[in-house]
Amino acid sequence: MIEDWATEESTEVYRGRWVVVRRDTVRRPDGSPGSYEYTEAVDGVRVLALDDRGRIALVAEDVYVCGRRLLLCPGGGCGADEDPAAAARRELLEEAGIRAARIEQLTTMWRMPAGARTREHLYLATGLTVGEHQREASEADMELRWVPLEEAAAMCADGRITEAGTLTAVLLTARQHRPAAAPTH
């Protein structure tokens, strides 16, 4: 059990604007020593906006760290004292220019549990009103795309959507909103 682990030392190796890198020396439950290096960052949010026509709002964005343009549900950081649902609403408006009458949590997931102490809160937004985005300068290359939910699920399966939070939000929503099976007699 996790409470049987002992942290003997925790060292901050690096602190940047968005991330802290730590190295912990631990004693495992069996008594053997170990060392773990990991990052800490603010939690994140992703919000899947589903319109009345069954389409979802995705943003295409050049992601420097990945070295490619990705299709993502709008999202971003969630301050330590910020309500994740409020952060989801903020990011949806900022990146896509969308306001939602309803927002519900899909799930909370660990982003990369073996190497990062940070979670991502996933939301479904409905009752949408589309207006003007409020993107930051670093988001100027973003492009809003409306994709049918079923097509987005296929894009997850064939590798056109590859970001973990977006994949999870799309597949959870597609599962919840799939057509009822035809009755068999």
TrEMBL record:
Pfam families from the UniProt entry: NUDIX
Q: Name one GO cellular component term.
A: cytosol
Query: What keywords were assigned to this record?
Result: Hydrolase
| Keyword Acetylation found | no
GO molecular-function term, one example from the UniProt record: hydrolase activity
Instruction: Spell out the SUPFAM superfamilies in the cross-references.
Output: Nudix
Domain (Nudix hydrolase) ranges: 40-169
Protein name as it appears in the record: Putative hydrolase
Q: Which organism is it from?
A: Kitasatospora setae (strain ATCC 33774 / DSM 43861 / JCM 3304 / KCC A-0304 / NBRC 14216 / KM-6054)
